[in-house]
Amino acid sequence: MIDENQKSPRAIAINVLKGGFGKSTTAINLARELAERNDQVLLIDLDDNGHTTFNLGYRDRYEGENHVQNVLLDGEDPSDFIVPVVEDLDLFPSHEALEEVETDLKSAMASSQRLFRNVVDPLLGDVYDYIVVDTPANRGKINDNALFATKNLMVPLRPESGWESGITQTNKRLIQEAQQYFDLRLLALVPTDLSERLDQDTQDRNLLQAINSRDALEPFVPNFAHLSESDWEALDAGEYNDELPGIRHRASIDKAHRARTPLRDFDPQCDQLEYYDELAQIVEKGGVVR
Question: Which CATH class is domain 10-193+249-285?
């Protein structure tokens, strides 16, 4: 049940079982917008490719001491390894040896609860209002830890041929399996990096039509990507006057990564920031509100 007026501390995993779907971009800019809304936010990078960590300027932490092992396996204080990004936003970086952590977790006691017990439980609510976790694109103990620790999920989708298998596998192998053991909630499906016309047979159109027309998916589509049947009719008639659905491709988003900073701090005038802000509101409210 979504309470539009109640804000409470919440953790969320950005997850899809397919690489290159915008997980890191979504995680960084969602976390930044939560911080912009005057909340204390921790961004945790548990993806072994380290894109979130690199894109925020902390490659040295990715290649240094294996702090993820120290915290998840050895129970050391996560605050000793957290680094600042901007005001109200901190980062727990990824590490190049996450495969070793994955292997060691398999034989650890309470192996799927380590992130919750050692990081999220002691920090969420007391130190941070929100925790955002960037996850690996494959099943495993680290992914299990992310889902159990957050119990909330946001799934980014890019308009390419593999999006349907990505959401299908994520639902079957992550969401449904996890829900057998604990309450895992899908908060939103996030179409991202859109760039094509919608009045023609494009991959952008195919993605948006599919998620907006399926009863099982439509409730999780953010308002910035929600199109009704009348919207499609207006598009095909050349009479659609509203903003094209986001999140759309912008050079500023890629340039922000190269500048090692979130989008808001690189280009505060970018027209896509309002969509990341809507994602922040979805996290605050616990789901999409029409």
Answer: alpha beta
